[in-house]
Design goal:
Layout (H helix, E strand, L loop, with lengths): L18 E2 L1 E3 L2 E3 L6 E5 L6 E6 L3 H19 L3 H17 L1 H12 L3 H25 L3 E6 L2 E9 L2 E5 L5 H15 L2 E5 L7 H9 L8 E3 L14 E4 L9 H11 L14 E5 L3 H13 L19 H16 L3 E4 L3 E2 L2 E2 L2 E4 L5 H4 L6 E7 L2 H8 L7 E5 L3 H10 L4 E4 L16 E9 L9
Parallel strand pairs: 1-5, 8-9, 9-10, 11-12, 11-18, 12-17, 16-17, 18-19
Antiparallel strand pairs: 2-3, 4-5, 6-7, 7-20, 13-16, 14-15
Helix pairs in contact: 2-4, 2-5, 3-4, 4-5, 7-8
């Protein structure tokens, strides 16, 4: 076990400034309004720093700085940009513990998650997109006897993104890695609840980039989080043996509480086949009760603090609604400050507690009879961002996965992975150069 010292205490690996301005054009710049917002850590509920309050005037300054830097950065070669991205990855790796603690203090997540998932995935994103652009080649198509289409890609110029509070650093990396790889300058607006850890990241990597290529405007209003009730389906053969597969499946069930359930793809609906329903729910409940809720800076802690008291109140209102609608509370359902116990409900899949999303450590469980019944229940929600399928029969698992409406389906696992390099397409535009090699007119006029 390791217990990291809290920022501001002796021995802490993270040191915050008392106040952070906006980061614009390679330097910290005071907000136009002169206003600042206190930043609360959900770990203790205390204000630990202030950040500049962002306004349209601040955004305009940041966009202007990015626009000025975009042309030079966009004209660099893919090899040059890949080198910088690899340097960023190396620097983040050197400061991995510092960044993990900073993420925990800002977001409330267990530091064990930040150490083994968030920061390593942040590093991987920069290395992945560096490799993608370093090895990429253009395309040439013969479109006529004497004409070729030379296809390449150009950056958009300036990318302006608002970040959710669910994974502050990883969400920043999901924008920065592909956007910088594509040759864009970037303006980021972290969520009001979690603006501080990105300043720690800037302190680590800012000197590796030309001024104005990355800009950060903080203190804007709450950023909405897109989410949905993602189904996690357990077929009858899951508990056929008391083996590693069953243990893995139970861990997959408990993933509803990862990051306090504050994940847009959290498996917050569990569907268990009727023939194993009581057995698997009992095992899953035991696993859930073993999740250690507590100080996020302790590496033994498995579930930390929800991001804000407002979010805590939203989760608890949802729990009370479930009780009032007749859903059975299997375990959990209590809160203390920012800390909410991992909670299991069971009930009818048509109830609100089963269909509505909450972004908290809550899972609603129901049963299904067969494959078709599972798909019918799972696909009742058309806004699925993710889904899980647990089955020893690979053919069944594959076929069910194909028919689920979710954008991403995990089969016999439910863990985060780096962004797919296809994300590059979001940050650049195709360029077609149509070249004729003929010295003759076409004869149109």
């Amino acid at each position: 076990m390791t217990h990291y010292a809290a920022p501001g205490r002796p021995g802490s690996v993270v040191a915050y400034r008392q106040r952070y301005d906006h980061f614009i054009g390679g330097d910290y710049v005071a907000p136009v309004s002169g206003e600042y917002v206190g930043n609360v850590t959900p770990v203790t509920g205390e204000v630990f720093t202030e950040v500049a309050r962002g306004t349209d005037a601040d955004r305009a300054r940041a966009l202007h700085a990015a626009s000025g830097a975009a042309r030079a950065w966009g004209s660099t070669t893919a090899r040059e940009r890949a080198t910088v991205l690899c340097e960023i990855a190396d620097r983040v790796e050197e400061h991995a513990t510092e960044l993990a603690v900073a993420e925990t203090w800002d977001n409330g997540k267990p530091v064990r998650e930040a150490l083994v998932a968030d920061v390593p995935l942040l590093i991987e994103q920069f290395r992945q997109f560096a490799a993608a652009i370093r090895t990429e080649v253009g395309q040439v198509e013969q479109v006529g006897r004497d004409t070729c289409d030379y296809r390449s890609y150009q950056p958009l110029g300036v990318v302006h993104e608002r970040l959710s509070w669910t994974f502050p650093l990883m969400n920043a990396g999901r924008v920065l890695a592909p956007a910088l790889a594509a040759g864009n300058a970037v303006v980021l607006e972290p969520a009001l609840q979690t603006p501080a850890s990105i300043h720690v990241l800037l302190g680590v990597i800012a000197d590796l980039l030309p001024p104005g290529v990355v800009n950060v405007v903080t203190g804007s209003d709450d950023h909405p989080v897109v989410s949905a009730r993602c189904p996690n389906i357990f077929f009858a053969d899951v508990p056929a043996h008391r083996d590693n597969f069953l243990d893995k499946a139970l861990e997959g069930f408990a993933m509803f509480a990862a990051n306090q359930g504050e994940i847009s793809t959290a498996p917050s609906r569990a569907l268990i086949q009727t023939s194993i329903y009581e057995e698997l729910l009992t095992l899953a409940t035991e696993r859930t009760r073993q999740l250690r809720l507590g100080d996020p800076l302790d590496t033994d802690t498995m579930v930390g603090a929800v991001v804000s008291l407002a979010q805590r109140d939203r989760v608890m209102a949802y729990v009370e609604r479930g009780k009032s609608e007749g859903a059975r509370l299997v375990t959990g359902g209590e809160a203390d400050g920012h800390y909410v116990q991992p909670t299991i409900f069971e009930g009818d899949h048509r109830s609100a507690v089963f269909s509505d999303d909450v972004l908290g450590p809550v899972v609603s469980v129901t049963r299904f009879d067969d494959r078709d019944d599972a798909l019918k229940i799972a696909n009742e929600s058309t806004a699925q961002l993710g889904a899980g399928v647990w089955c020893r029969d690979v053919t069944l698992a594959h076929n069910v996965g194909q028919e689920l409406r979710a954008e991403r389906v995990w089969v016999n696992n439910y863990h985060a992975y780096p962004a797919n390099t296809a994300a590059l397409a979001e940050y650049r535009r195709p360029k077609h150069l149509l070249v004729s090699y003929s010295d003759r007119a076409q004869g149109y006029f």
